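=== RUN LOG ===
request id: a7f3
mode: sequence -> structure
chains: 1
length: 406
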Amino acid sequence: MGAFAAKGRGIASPSRRGLLKGFGAAALVSAPGMAWAQQALLADVSGPAKALMDRAVVIDMLGPLSLDFTSDAFRDALTPEEAEEFRTSGVTAFHNSYGVGGPDAHQSVLQYMAAWNGFVARNAGLFTLVDRAEDIQAAKDSGKIAVIMGVQNSSHFRTADDVELFYDLGQRVSQLTYNSQNRLGSGSTDRVDGGVSDFGASIIAKMNEIGMLVDVSHCGDQTTLDAIEISERPIAITHSNCRALNDHPRLKTDEAIRKLAAKGGVMGITGVRNFVRGEEPTSVEHIVDHIDHVAQLTGVEHVGVGTDTDLNGYDDMSPEMNKMLRASYKGSYAFRDKLDTDGFDDPAKFYHLTEALLRRGYGDDDVLLIMGGNFQRLLTEIWSDHDAYLEKKAAKEAEKASGDGE
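=== RESULT ===
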């Protein structure tokens, strides 16, 4: 949900929310202390769930690395405690993506890409930047965490040629709109949804050609359906839920979910409380209800997870930043006192979700698909298109050079 702050601090930064908060100062000074904290965080997780998480390629298909929307989030290296928090999460790959728009979107996203690429480089012992799909499995094998760079908007594409520019800078996923109308189409909270524009269609075509994943999570209903139809390649809903279970404008209709799956796409289920359920209580079991719904509509091969939050969640933000976040959305978002879902609000959230899926009767193979296997398949398919694009581009350049030589 968050917006990226490229310039200045804006408001006071929240204190660092380390894994070890609440475990006492002594735990902060030694590796055994960190190991003890990790054990405490996973104390209620069963052996079968831990074993599945060890095997899984876990992909959080919308997992911003920090909900600190100031420059503090990316300018420093992580502390050992913060790094251990990421390791404890069990997540193999985070799709690090924020909403960046406005009249200066092109320049802002340039700054955004530089900022987060720099953050990954400063923390190279923990993170690795994703270039190709194989990098995700390589991260799993080496004990690192892969970072997929995306943007929750496409206003920074001034022309179709900009898709290649930002691909070369590391962007691998682009959401078409962020809640509100832009040149490409309409957002989920717009009063009227006119669908994908001609310009939007040209951007989708270029993304298809170059091998960048199209995301429609925040798009309006008609824009979502148009994008699915226009795209020649499978696309994603990286982080949304099912409107059939919760009547909220940010969520997706059964029609959209079916059409997405029919073209090979994958939908990531989110844990944002007001997207999970419209009333209390709201727990991780209700997240599984949305996974069930997609699996029953389309098959389990088309559902994954996009938490739409960092490791600790929105409710751990500073009061000032929480207030700023809430004020940046329309009333139709229907925020409640809490933003995080019970049982899905700490660094062990994927372990808790695995437990809930096992309780619901999902087999190991299906859990592995939901945790990341489905998105891994989709990303491999889409990103491999870049090889064909480069071959075609090289052939054209060679042909032109040959003609010039004559």
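=== NOTES ===
Residues 38 and 366 are 27 Å apart (CA to CA).
Confidence is low (pLDDT under 50) at residues 5-30.
=== END ===
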